[in-house]
Write a structure and sequence with these properties.
alpha/beta, five-stranded parallel beta sheet, 20 helices, binds adenosine-5'-triphosphate, binds magnesium ion
């Protein structure tokens, strides 16, 4: 049986027809609905098996400023939730072949922070009450019209805005300068924060790459503490410092009698981190036999404690880091290719400090603030020291900078840090080759415009042709750089 409804602004988006529900697409919905400017671009997922219903809700929500996606089955929705940011789910409680309340609980289990609005029929108001008890944020009864859907979506927007403001305040308390406790505003860091925010809401492994001291562990912590399971454990494991023969029992635990001295069973780190995150630092150091066991744990989501006969299911997020060239290790056969691909679903590359020199003053300020607060002092940085620190290449990255400032605070005679208070490595560092002043012949003097040309061409060469970055590093505008290149007759 079919029911035809002429759709007009404000008419029903869904209407009851006998036992089942029949949904009617609202005609020219986009033409009649004005986007509300105060609505932010939130991510909405519509879960409904009926195409027309999905599409009509999508039109309304998109016009309200939601970034909307649809799913026609719970499986599709779960899959989507695994990999995408979702703020609000509009869930039909009557999906064929599934129990709507179960689906709701599963969504909340996977994404506790997501608001779920359930759609119920008049005949099933009772289930709306049950749904609210099971964690639904709101409900809407079918048939509903545009205004009703708009109101419920706007309520959810207001709620999310308040929650995110509260969260922001919490984050700001942690650090006033960056993402979580990460400091830095360089474009590369801003990009990193965006990826961290995305990674925090997925459950895939993340491989964090970066030179020593760039903040790999801090990034791993940020991913964990910005995600929905921040109340669960975050367990860092330094694969490089574990005794090789003990790594397996440390990671996977053991059962009583597994070896001499195993007088009772013990959970491993994987089991201890249940529900949370395990951070495998220096993962490149894992012995090859352990690599296969780790691969199995990730793939099967279960572990086998040492001496145990039965596998134990685990639910833990894996983050891994290394400053080794894992790809080269794979080529040499010291790191399993399949594990590399498993860990490498998402890769985060932290730039070395020398590539984001603009963050150096902020980082120095951050360390000074911490030291001053802890020791009730008023240390500041002198211009001379700051200039040298800006020019230095920081092979040990942020850790080296922290050590340098901490050391300078303890050795400086007054509260201002000068070049003399900095470590030898910095004092010996020369950003530019020494000018031969004494005994230089007049014809060895290079005109300034030639020096400038050399500096510009060298910067472009070093930065592999990235002119924008070159302009930034040289401290000139990109228009100036392009003008100069034109003057040199370079191909732009
Ligand atoms: N962006 C940042 N903002 C503030 N502090 C940072 C930042 N990056 C790193 N640090 C600090 O630098 C130090 C080194 O960071 P971390 O231990 O995370 O580096 P890492 O990459 O894991 O180093 P390694 O490879 O040596 O293990 C820590 O004290 C950390 O707090
Ligand atoms: Mg580390």
């Amino acid at each position: 049986m079919s029911t035809e409804v002429q759709a007009m602004p404000g008419t029903l988006l869904a209407c009851a027809a006998g036992e089942g529900m029949r949904h009617v697409l609202m005609a020219n919905a986009t033409a009649v609905i004005m986007p509300t400017s105060e609505t932010n671009l939130l991510n909405l997922l519509i879960v409904d098996d009926e195409r027309s219903m999905r599409e009509s809700c999508r039109e309304v929500s998109s016009s309200l400023g939601f970034h909307t996606q649809v799913a026609d089955s719970p499986e599709h929705a779960y899959h989507f939730l695994e990999t995408n940011p979702v703020d609000v789910v509009l869930l039909d409680l009557r999906l064929p072949g599934s129990n709507g309340l179960e689906v709701l609980r599963e969504i909340k289990r996977r994404r506790p922070e997501t608001l779920v609005i359930v759609m119920t029929g008049f005949a099933t108001v009772q289930s709306a009450v049950q749904a609210m008890k099971s964690g639904a944020y709101d409900y809407i009864t079918k048939p509903f019209n545009f205004d009703e859907l708009r109101m419920v979506l706007e309520r959810s927007t207001a709620h999310l805005k308040l929650t995110s403001e509260n969260r922001l305040m919490r984050e700001q308390l942690k650090s006033r300068n960056g993402f979580g406790s990460l400091v830095g505003h360089a474009p590369e860091m801003e990009k990193l924060y965006r990826i961290i925010a995305k990674a925090a809401h997925s459950s895939h492994p993340v491989l964090i790459l970066g030179e020593s001291g760039t903040g790999k562990e801090l990034v791993a912590r940020s991913i964990h503490y910005s995600g929905p399971y921040r109340d669960k454990p975050f367990l860092p494991v330094d694969c490089g410092s574990l005794v090789p023969s003990l790594i397996e029992s440390e990671l996977f635990g053991y059962v009583r009698g597994a070896f001499t001295g195993a007088v009772r069973s013990k959970d491993g780190l994987m089991a201890t981190a249940e529900g949370g995150t395990i951070f495998l630092d220096e993962v490149g150091e894992l012995p090859v036999d352990l690599q296969s066991k780790l691969l199995r744990a990730i793939q099967e989501k279960e572990i086998r404690p040492v001496g145990g006969t039965r596998p134990v299911p685990i639910n833990v997020r894996i983050l891994a880091a290394t400053n080794r060239d894992l790809e080269a290790a794979v080529q040499q056969g010291s790191f399993r290719r399949d594990l590399y691909f498993r860990l490498n679903v998402l890769t985060l590359r932290i730039p070395p400090l020398r590539e984001r020199a603009q963050d150096i003053p902020l980082l120095i300020g951050n360390v000074l603030e911490r030291i001053n607060a802890a020791t009730q002092t008023q240390h500041t940085i002198g211009d001379d020291a700051l200039r040298l620190m800006l020019a230095y290449n920081w092979p040990g990255n942020v850790r080296e900078l922290e050590n340098c400032v901490e050391r300078a605070c303890t050795t400086c005679s007054f509260s201002t840090i000068h070049v003399a208070d900095l470590p030898t490595a910095l004092r010996n560092f020369q950003a530019l080759p020494k000018l031969e002043v004494q005994g230089a012949e007049p014809d060895t003097i290079t005109p300034l415009d030639q020096l400038e040309k050399q500096a510009i061409l060298r910067a472009i060469d070093v930065l592999k042709g990235d002119k924008l970055q070159a302009a930034r590093r040289l401290g000139i505008g990109k228009t100036t750089l392009y003008r100069k290149l034109k003057e040199y007759g370079s191909v732009i």
